[in-house]
Predict the 3D structure of the following.
Amino acid sequence: MEEVKVEATPKVKKTAKSRKTKEAKVEPTNPTFPAKGMVNAYGFIHISNGIAEAFGSPKGKKTDVTIDFKEGNLIISKV
């Protein structure tokens, strides 16, 4: 019987491909006030990115606010 030589190849771990992130192309907007927004069924207030930026709240960042109720209007102010 002949001996057969088999060379073992080491297993190479495949690494996850890095995701290519698209850089957001943000065009500066000049929002007009009063602006329209929405309060959903859970009580979250949704406003456009332009309105949030005008308010001084950068996208993806938490901004602390105070909410006041006067004469049937909500008044939202930065802390």
User: Anything to note?
Assistant: The longest strand covers residues 65-70. The mean pLDDT is 78. The first helix runs from residue 49 to 55.
